[in-house]
Amino acid sequence: MTDNLTLAAPVLQMTGIAKSFANTYAVRGVDFSAAAGEVHALMGENGAGKSTLMKILAGAFHDYTGEIRLHGRAVQLHSPAHAKAAGIEMIYQELSLVPQVSIAENMLAGRLPVKRGFLLDRAAMVAETRHWLEKVGLDCDPLLRVDGLSPHEAQRVEIAKALSNRPSILVMDEPTSSLSRREVEILFRLIRELKAQGLAVIYISHHLPEVFAVSDRCTVLRDGQRIVSRPIHEFTAVSLVELMVGRSVTESAIPREHEPGEVRLRVRQLTRKGFFHRLNFEVRAGEVLGIGGLAGAGRSEFARSLCGIDPVDDGEVDLDGKAYPGGDLCDAIRAGFAYLTEDRKSEGLALFNTALQNAGDAVIAGRRTLLPAAAAREGFARLAVELELLPPEPQRQAVQFSGGNQQKVLLAKWLATNPEVCILDEPTRGVDVGAKRVIHEAIARLADRGKCVILLSSDLPELVALSDRVIIMRKGRFVGEQRRGVFTEDSILLAANAEDGVS
């Protein structure tokens, strides 16, 4: 396809960019540009080449071919230091902060202010850090350690850190993945301010409404090649999805219509002091129970404790009439529980192990014995087909898969345990529309087989489409319940945002 938009004197010009891994091209002959004062969306399925192209721009790869021009001058970006010096900052979906040190030390690493030539100027350090935190709407102590932050707070620190280097080109890879709606609005206001100041922003997201709300132009990649680049107003949601996947795909989940069976899981008075309090609920056979709420409501903390990862102070849990005493994750797996974490990179996968090894890890943890090799291979092959894993290579390291396919490997890891209770924490965060469809279909199959599914999701269309019931969580407590036919995206959001005593 030909471009319908040509920009004069762009800040960035990438021409004929190519990069291969083991004789397979991740990007091939890609042209891409960005102008000052423009928000340019880069779209495509997981594995389309978006991250590879932007990592080349950020100096992560030195063995690419093609030409990169900044402000009209040819440059060689063969290291992250070269890219930063050239005014390029990239905010990765996986945060790069060091948890054990303070926000200020993370933000000003390599350029901490000094006085009298060698003494750390703590006052200047705190003042500068606070300035950039205010830019992203975050009010917290600059001397607080990063491991004391929630995921959405850490994401905003990452954005503030990038801005503190005063880049001319800012790449944002799924910047809203851990943000609430209010925080997304703050981010969008910031992006518009940066755009007005002449910054070129390259925006990568799988959330189509965000792309249409904030972007001026959109380039679509598919199978490592550029398909089209146009002004955003020339796209519709349907046409954009079709260009991304090369076929017609419905973005939203397919609503489920069925009647759940008998109660299988009962939870009473589950409490972890300081995190969640006196949680009571039941899940029926074949039911998808959605847990809605804002970031920081305590959903992940509750899920981790239910699966034995974190402790509880009080409460009773029984499955099929049998008391589940808790303990640790291995005990939970043996009892029939599975927990898909929201953080696949740090907690979910052993990135340098193979897909097959990852898929067998939870089975081995539950059995405490090795799985026969033939059975492991056979089970993985079945799950790879079921989840449309690409490429379906059991010996490929997890780190070598795209983000969406890593998520499929993580899901395969837990499906391999044949769980009776499957707790899914943000199961489609950061994946494309095709991978989202596959994951939604897998959730529906679990429920159709009579399993109990607990779905924690900030994706309201997903929560509404898949759930039979939705419980609203706020400040560590369940504050309301809505059933299919009654709940809507608006009703869930209103309940999650209600003041104490109002649901």
Summarize this entry quickly.
The protein is α/β, with parallel strands linked by helices and 503 residues long.
Describe the structure.
The structure is a single chain. The chain has a 6-stranded mixed sheet, sandwiched between helices. A 6-stranded mixed sheet has the order 18-19-20-15-21-22, sandwiched between helices. A 4-stranded antiparallel sheet has the order 2-1-4-5, covered by helices on one side. 34% of the residues lie in helices and 25% in strands. The chain folds into 2 domains: 12-245, 3-Layer(aba) Sandwich (Rossmann fold); 263-350 and 418-497, P-loop containing nucleotide triphosphate hydrolases (Rossmann fold, 3-Layer(aba) Sandwich). It contains 17 helices and 22 strands. It starts with 11 loop residues before the first strand and ends in a 6-residue tail after the last helix. It is of the alpha/beta class.
* CATH evolutionary superfamily of the largest domain: P-loop containing nucleotide triphosphate hydrolases
Which value, in Å, is the CA radius of gyration?
A: 23 Å
Q: In what order do the strands lie side by side in the largest sheet? A: 6-9-10-3-11-12
Ends apart, CA distance between termini: 51 Å
Report the count of strand segments: 22
Assign the CATH topology of the largest domain.
Rossmann fold
Q: Unreliable stretches, pLDDT < 50, 5 or more residues? A: 1-8, 499-503
Q: What is the beta-strand fraction?
A: 15-25%
What's the CATH first level of the largest domain? Answer: Alpha Beta
Task: Tell the overall outline.
Answer: globular
Chain-averaged pLDDT? 86
Q: Just name the CATH architecture of the largest domain.
A: 3-Layer(aba) Sandwich
Structural class: alpha/beta
Secondary structure: helix percent: 25-40%
Sheet with the most strands, sense and barrel status: 6 strands, mixed
Q: How many separate domains?
A: 2
Number of helices: 17
